[in-house]
């Protein structure tokens, strides 16, 4: 039986400011106990036009919103966007929008940005960074798009696709950068930020 490894030695509550089951699954890799407290913010409200700044701004807002509920905890905020042709491809509004987004991504390379914010609610110390990954799609047929959309899976995902435990994985031809960033939580970067904030 495999044993969990926990080198972080966090001596206070760890809180993930996200309801995403994908992020929760990745955080469990660290072998630490944590709570879930989804952030209630408007993800369409941000001030920057640069993708790296957008995700860092939104991840910070999430962490700060959740930090108000905890006197002495480490809060993890995260936000992921898909970027193509200088514009943000967010979660699809409906099935027609999902079809449009997948059509734009088909046969092309896009970028995935994830912002990570780690905040100590007692000291107010805050660390904020981002990860960028390039993803190249193969050509996707209309039949494949429609079949995928019919599963409902694209509807809650930025860029209308998932790469893990999901048919969307077959669209991905090449990845340059962190795979876990595409899932929504760049684990190596997060681990380094957590080590820094507890040091």
List keywords for this structure.
31% helix; 199 residues; 7 strands; seven-stranded mixed β-sheet; Maf protein
Structure description:
31% of the residues lie in helices and 25% in strands. It has 199 residues and is α/β, with parallel strands linked by helices. It has one domain: Maf protein, CATH 3.90.950. Strands 1, 2, 3, 4, 5, 6 and 7 form a seven-stranded mixed sheet that branches. Helix 3 (95-105) crosses helix 4 (142-150). The radius of gyration is 17 Å and the shape is elongated. The model has no long low-confidence stretch (mean pLDDT 93).
Distance between the ends: 31 Å
**CATH topology term:** Maf protein
The gross shape turns out to be elongated
- Cα-based radius of gyration, to the nearest Å: 17 Å
Helical proportion, percent range: 25-40%
Q: Which second-level CATH architecture applies? A: Alpha-Beta Complex
Note the topology.
Blueprint: E1 13-16, H1 21-27, E2 35-36, H2 51-67, E3 73-84, E4 87-89, H3 95-105, E5 109-120, E6 126-137, H4 142-150, E7 172-176, H5 179-183, H6 187-198
Parallel strand pairs: 1-2, 1-3
Antiparallel strand pairs: 3-4, 3-5, 5-6, 6-7
Helix pairs in contact: 3-4
What is the gist of this entry?
The chain has helices at residues 21-27, 51-67, 95-105, 142-150, 179-183, 187-198, and strands spanning 13-16, 35-36, 73-84, 87-89, 109-120, 126-137, 172-176. The chain is α/β, with parallel strands linked by helices. Strands 1, 2, 3, 4, 5, 6 and 7 form a seven-stranded mixed sheet that branches.
């Amino acid at each position: 039986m495999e044993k969990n490894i926990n080198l972080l030695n966090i001596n206070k509550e760890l809180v993930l400011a996200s309801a995403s089951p994908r992020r929760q699954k990745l955080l469990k890799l660290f072998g630490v106990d944590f709570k879930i407290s989804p952030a209630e913010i408007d993800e369409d409200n941000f001030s920057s036009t640069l993708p790296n700044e957008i995700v860092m701004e939104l991840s910070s807002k999430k962490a700060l919103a959740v930090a108000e509920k905890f006197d002495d905890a480490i809060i993890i905020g995260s936000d992921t966007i898909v970027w193509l042709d200088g514009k943000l491809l967010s979660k699809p509004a409906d099935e027609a929008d999902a079809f449009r987004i997948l059509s734009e991504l088909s046969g092309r390379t896009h970028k995935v940005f994830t912002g990570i914010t780690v905040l100590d609610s007692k000291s107010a110390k805050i660390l904020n960074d981002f990860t960028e990954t390039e993803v190249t799609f193969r050509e996707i047929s209309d039949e494949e798009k429609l079949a995928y959309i019919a599963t409902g899976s694209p509807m809650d995902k930025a860029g209308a696709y998932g790469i893990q435990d999901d048919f969307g994985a077959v669209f991905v031809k090449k990845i340059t950068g962190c795979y876990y960033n595409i899932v929504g939580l760049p684990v190596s970067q997060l681990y380094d930020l957590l080590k820094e904030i507890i040091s």
